[in-house]
Amino acid sequence: MRLDEMLGIKYPFIQGGMANIATGEFAAAVSNAGGLGLIGAGGMNTEQLKENIHKCKSLTDKPFGVNLMLMNPEADKMAELLVEEGVKIVTTGAGNPAKYMAMWKENGMIVIPVVSASILAVKMQQCGADAVIAEGTESGGHVGEMTTMALVPQIVDAVTIPVIAAGGIADGRQLAAAFALGAIGVQLGTCLLASEECPIHEAYKAAVLKAKDNDTIVTGRITGTPVRIIKNAMAREYVKQEKAGADKMELEKFTLGSLRRAVFEGDVKTGSLMAGQVVGQLKEIKPIRQIFEDIYAGYRETVAGLQA
Ligand code: TUI
Question: Which CATH entry fits the domain spanning 3-199+284-307: 3.40.30.10, 3.20.20.70, 3.30.70.640, 3.40.50.970?
Fold first, then answer.
């Protein structure tokens, strides 16, 4: 069964978590355009998450969910809030959600953890996950080591639950490739930064349109929190000091509040402009509906070309 049938949505597309970006309003826009919108709990506290869930419910009658970023200090409280609010679909990132699985499943929720290696995918299946998102290192934000091309088929072979591909997908060719690798659908993040509805600062959007394929870099590989962002003065200095052996505390000075600086203030010099490697493919700002239509039309064209 494909992801669109599984979730009762128009397209086999699920939105990435996008901490500090994916508000209730944005998630509703994604859902109304035919994908699965997700409220990114990453940069929120529990009260803010609750408000965003209410907002999302008021703006769409389509399915939506929440992405719980497990490094969030309020993750435990948020996990319970999702049950109280009757949220039906949850994706998780940046950690192992095993301790919440029983509670979520008892409440009939669809649980889809993000994983970056097959060992965790197998564990998640054992805990009762309904599907997993196999996220390659091409993605923006917090990333693993493996590429989508190598990761997706290995996870498909390791589990019996459905696999959703993430990382490196922004057009129809890449959607076709994800299906070819055995995925039932895809998670999209970076291409949604270049949407009219995306609430990031205009300067962040301009940097997204300007970036070329090789313009992202991963900070924090050595210190243990690898995060892919668009190269800028802060990123270059961070990686330089990281390579020179700077300690974690010293390096944190660079990234403290840096995602918020990028998203809300448009600080493209010292902010963290999280984006995946597909950022080089994005040339214009479009409505989400158009982005989805274009990817799907490109997919149909790709498949027709392969069959010709
Ligand atoms: O979570 C993401 N991407 C993110 S989270 C985020 S917010 C943030 N802000 C500042 C610093 C760091 C993060 C921005 N982007 N993607 C899903 C993902 N999850 N990628 C990799 C993983 C992952 C890593 C380890 C999942 C599980 C895991 O498990 C380790 C364990 O405990 O077994």
Answer: 3.20.20.70
